[in-house]
Amino acid sequence: MAVFGNTTAGNLSYEFCQYMYSRTYTLSEKAKVTKMTARLRGGLFGNSDVTLAIYNVDANGYPTSLVGYTETKTITDASLTDTDFNFATPVLLGAGNYALVIHSWNANPQFGFGYSKTILPNDALSWKGPLASSAVPSTFPTYPGGGALHWGLGGPGANSSEALIYATYTPLKLYPFWFFKR
Fold first, then answer.
1. Across-strand partners of 75?
2. pTM for the predicted model, two decimal places
3. 21 in Cβ contact with 102 (< 8 Å)
């Protein structure tokens, strides 16, 4: 098993609800993704339902179309906890860039995600909201139709927050045609 995304511990916390957080990462090989993990904590005003997702990205690194999403979990723990989310069916990906997304729903309960301050000047960060539905959208909301773009390319100023979010996968190896010949 291998991972792509951010596995660096994030111990700072930011609270939000009805938003989608995304960050673009590069997958260096073909893969079968079985689960995603994010560092999360329960909300200040109650529990929050969270789903993680993978989106294709455009040439600028912004999320476009949905590739797959995980089960939804209700986040209740008051402290930051690394939480695993499974896919009902593994997601097959080619090598390339993908957006790993935290999708939260619930009107009032805010929840937190663990992040660290990093400087990634060419890394796209999108944060859209408020969301119109609890369903993970098949196309990432576009500004301004999907809500406000809180942070653009590179984040606010020189610093951008990078959540602990990553996908666990099994590398897919291609075998030469002669391997299957008898």
1. 48
2. 0.81
3. yes
Residue with tokens 């890394």: 123
Give the whole-angstrom CA distance, residue 40 versus residue 83.
7
Query: In angstroms, rounded to a whole number, what is the distance separating the alpha carbons of residues 106 and 165?
Result: 21
Q: How many CB atoms lie within 10 A of CB 49?
A: 16
Assigned token pair, 6? 């951010």
pLDDT at 139 over 50: yes
Measured at the CA of 105, the angle between CA 103 and CA 109, to 5 degrees, comes to 120
Cα radius of gyration (the chain): 17
111 Cβ partners below 8 Å, 6+ apart? Answer: 15, 16, 17, 40, 41, 42, 43, 47, 48, 50, 75, 104
Q: Could you count the other beta carbons within 10 Å of the beta carbon of residue 19?
A: 19
Contact at 8 Å (CB) between 58 and 98? no
